[in-house]
Specification:
Number of helices of chain A: 13
Largest interface: A-B, 89 and 82 residues
CATH class of the largest domain in chain A: Alpha Beta
Structural class of chain A: alpha/beta
Number of helices of chain B: 13
Order of helices and strands of chain B: EEHEEHHEHHHEHEHEHEHEHEHHEEEE
Strand content of chain B: 15-25%
Largest sheet of chain B: 11 strands, mixed
Number of strands of chain A: 13
Structural class of chain B: alpha/beta
CATH topology of the largest domain in chain B: Peroxisomal Thiolase, Chain A, domain 1
CATH superfamily of the largest domain in chain A: Thiolase/Chalcone synthase
Radius of gyration of chain A: 19 Å
Largest sheet of chain A: 11 strands, mixed
CATH superfamily of the largest domain in chain B: Thiolase/Chalcone synthase
Number of strands of chain B: 15
Mean pLDDT of chain B: 96
Number of domains of chain A: 2
Shape of chain B: globular
Number of domains of chain B: 2
Oligomer: heterodimer
Distance between the termini of chain A: 35 Å
CATH architecture of the largest domain in chain A: 3-Layer(aba) Sandwich
CATH topology of the largest domain in chain A: Peroxisomal Thiolase, Chain A, domain 1
CATH class of the largest domain in chain B: Alpha Beta
Chain lengths: 368, 406
Amino acid sequence: MTTSVLDPVAITGCGVVSPAGAGLAALRALLDGETKPNETPPAEDAEVLPPLAVRIVPDIRLADYVGRKGTRRLDRMIGFGLIATRLALDTAGGADDDALRARTGVALGTTTGSVRSVYELADSIFNPEVGYVPSRFPNSVMNSCAGQIAVWNAFQGVNSTLANGHASSVSALRYARNAIRFGHASRVFVGGVEELSPQVAWGWHKSGTLTQDAVLGEGCAMLVAEDPAQVGDRQVLAELLGAEVGYFDPRNRRVTPARGLAQTVTRLLERSGLTAGDVDLVSLGAAGQHGARTVEEYGLRLALGELPTSLRVSDALGDCYSASGAMQAAAVLARWSDGSHPAERHALVTSLGADGSVGCFLLRRPTA
Amino acid sequence: MSEPNSRRVVVTGLGVVSSIGIGVEPFTESIKAGRSGISPISSFDASGYAKRNAGEVKDFDPGAILERLDPEAWGRSGQFAASAARLAVRDAHIDPDLLRASNAGSAMGTASGEPRVMYGIAEQWSRSGGEEFGPGPVGTAPANRLAGAVNSELGLTGEAVTFGTACSASNYTLGYGYDLVRTGEADFFLAGGADSVSRYTHLGFSLIGIISEILRPFDSNRSGIVTAEGGVCIFLEPLEHAVARGARIYAEVLGYGVNCDAKHMTQPDVATITSCMQSAHTAAGVKAQEIDYICAHGTGTPASDAAEVAAARAVFGDDVPPISSIKSMLGHTMGAASGLGSVICCKALEEGFLPPTATLDESDPELGPGIDFVPGVAKPANLNIVENHGFAFGGNNAITIFGRVK
């Protein structure tokens, strides 16, 4: 296998919809302890959520971001995706460049698409009196959010939907990086989306995988990944040095998930031309799954020795599952915004799922 | 930012679980004979629907194929995925220990992941809310388990990622795997897809009015799709490695093109399909006139077939190569569809035949004259370069190009 160092990809924008509200500044304020996350679910969900701690995206009107026309049959998850994309586009610039839009792709992490929309379709079988609008059927398909992001923004580059549980966003970043490297797009809106519908919350509640103090979250974070050659004088928030993903089935005793994570991190560092000592900040992924924090910490100690400064965005937002890796990246960008923490240059972001999937990527702060 | 190819990538193993055959040889024989896998739906009560056919895999026994996975712990799509992967690895005659010790992973495409599992949970939700959800189904439902099933069955530690790019997803996985192997990011890779027939998939396509009893691509009387299921997996290996170990090489992956209509979620767009074909040719380093056959997306809906043929005419002018749709036999296997198309492209190159559009009675005159849609059964043909189409909801177009290795 190759060990050559790859060229970085520029991250020129970031849009976030989270329990902190809309925007990277809102996430920063939450991480700085200036605000509190929203815990109030939409009225129609409040009575059917399980007894679990939740962090919910506050009521943000999609129409305020994309206009009212044509939004009525979209589902809530698509709304998250469209708002995060619009915010990301606003920060990245180039919104008026039609030629660039035609070369812009999407790589979106989501493990099951909109579970709410799937259940809505299925419910029409058992409760036909409720009535179902056929034009909502596309919402139930896994790639509906990525497809709608393209439709609403005229992004004609590669359009991909990546499912990898907690590592979905890392897989999306890895895919985006590859797509840019081989010219399937020169810019990719890449991230992850998760909607904590009552159906999903009950699924987690009954999964038997959560700790007593687990907190579930939701939202969407989109990064704008670009070929550095086309960025020009637009700002670069960070550089994506690499993204690696592995799978270490816990039933396969040959390599434990912790050792697998360590191997994957070590490979990422090698491929990025760095050593363990270069990592200044770790943005951790493990949240409310039994044993996950121990595995992640042990794996990181194996790879890095001493743990550098750690950031766990799920403490503030709850576990955002498919969106978690992208949220962790957004947390790094929020932390570094306005020149804060200038001594931190390299941030490692890690993800791991209960099935043994692990992922990691490296962000580098651009030199001033 | 594009980089030169460093390694040539070939297909040396094919795994198929389909309604017309389990294993690549039975599958290929059925395709050549124009055999149909469409039958009355047996996996759910379809009596309430106007159209009651599907392409179900009737005689699938995962326990007879799988070596490591307990089928009970996985959904039907995961069973399809892992079984197809096991068959592909056996077909490749690659040493399983070498595979486990290498940097090898999988990408599996799908439209609905585990729709039967999801549907079972959704039914509970509709009847009694979440109180009766069980950990088994909840743990089995996530779509990423399709690629996870492949890696767990084969003991692979490379990435396991599921592509939810619906009906073109297998072509996405193949393109991605090709990139990983050609650059050395992966030593080997398994790419494919899986989907299951389910009541809600059938319902959804019924609601938008494109379900038919018979899938008749390019026919005057075509009226829509038949939902179908299956699993497919393609083993990708560097050419040099395959030659060194004396492997049978089906075909070389020459390149792929991907883009997005970005106009409408369900209506295909001729202009972007045209440019997807052109970018696939460019990526593969081939000229349009070198293409000997097109394995069509060919869903049998009036709009989709018309758009696909119009795009082919835009690219090939008056010299459109033979185009056929194996969905005429399989139905629409969704996430597995373009993977099964890739398999038949590889076999067509290897054996020298044009796969048929088995159900074609009368070519639609509106599609224009002068195109061989290969009606009925396969025809012998000497093929060197072929292309395989996959288009999807969301306007996710993906086209792969395969060449014969001489």
